[in-house]
């Protein structure tokens, strides 16, 4: 059986294609996400989907929002929230935190409003504390139960977009 899925290029922060990720369209299909295997060039634990796009922007971002998946990043970008990244199907790592703090002073974690999202936030907090230093900030945006950034933007539209931007002082 052929699954309907979208294929996404994973790029390094230098904008080089280093791997591929797939996401099924029908959420009842498993696995939901499928990534390239780790290699010398591609290591999920240190790459962030969307970072290359942020770095290509001529205006330096003040903060970066970390979300759970490709579709959340794509949804945020399509709503002019162009400072979002996603880990590639794994928990936030120290390498992610170090890479983000090399480019911005503030990281905002915004995970899905479910049990897995709460666990991801707890893990991100514990990992982030080791990378926190003077002038650097971490924040958390908790979503309503059952929501993710993409679904919330779709449901709430302009109001939620303004909350993302104004709640954190603009993008």
Would you give an account of this structure?
The protein is an alpha/beta fold and 171 residues long. It is built from 6 helices and 8 strands; from the N terminus they run ββββαβαβαβαβαα. It has helices at 51-56, 70-78, 94-101, 115-129, 149-156, 158-166, and strands spanning 5-11, 17-24, 33-35, 48-49, 63-67, 84-87, 106-109, 137-140. The strands form 2 sheets. It has a 5-stranded mixed beta sheet, with helices on both faces. A 3-stranded antiparallel beta sheet has the order 1-2-3, with no helix packed on it. α4 links the parallel β7 (106-109) and β8. The N and C termini lie far apart (43 Å). The model has no long low-confidence stretch (mean pLDDT 81).
Question: Would you spell out the secondary-structure blueprint of this structure?
Answer:
Layout: E1 5-11, E2 17-24, E3 33-35, E4 48-49, H1 51-56, E5 63-67, H2 70-78, E6 84-87, H3 94-101, E7 106-109, H4 115-129, E8 137-140, H5 149-156, H6 158-166
Parallel strand pairs: 5-6, 5-7, 7-8
Antiparallel strand pairs: 1-2, 2-3, 4-6
Name the features:
171 residues; alpha/beta; five-stranded mixed beta sheet; three-stranded antiparallel beta sheet; globular
Distance between the termini: 43 Å
**Overall spatial form:** globular
The strand order across the widest sheet is 4-6-5-7-8
Report the biggest beta sheet as strand number plus sense, adding barrel if it closes.
5 strands, mixed
Class from secondary-structure proportions: alpha/beta
The total beta strand count reads 8
Radius of gyration: 15 Å
Mean pLDDT: 81
Summed up, the helix count is 6
Strand content: 15-25%
**What is the chain-wise order of helices and strands?**
EEEEHEHEHEHEHH
Which spans have pLDDT < 50 for at least 5 consecutive residues?
none
């Amino acid at each position: 059986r052929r699954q309907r899925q979208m294929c996404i290029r994973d790029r390094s922060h230098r904008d080089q294609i280093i791997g591929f990720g797939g996401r099924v369209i029908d959420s009842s299909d498993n696995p939901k996400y499928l990534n390239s295997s780790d290699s010398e060039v591609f290591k999920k634990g240190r790459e962030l989907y969307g970072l290359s796009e942020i770095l290509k922007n001529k205006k330096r971002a003040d903060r970066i929002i970390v979300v759970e998946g490709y579709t959340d990043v794509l949804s945020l970008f399509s709503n002019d929230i162009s400072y979002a990244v996603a880990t590639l199907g794994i928990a936030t790592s120290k390498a992610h935190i170090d890479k983000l703090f090399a480019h911005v002073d503030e990281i905002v974690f915004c995970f899905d409003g479910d049990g897995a999202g709460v666990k991801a936030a707890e893990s991100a907090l514990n990992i982030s504390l080791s990378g926190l230093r003077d002038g650097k900030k971490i924040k958390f945006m908790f979503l309503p139960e059952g929501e993710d950034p993409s679904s919330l933007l779709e449901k709430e539209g302009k109001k939620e977009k303004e909350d993302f931007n104004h709640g954190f002082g603009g993008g």
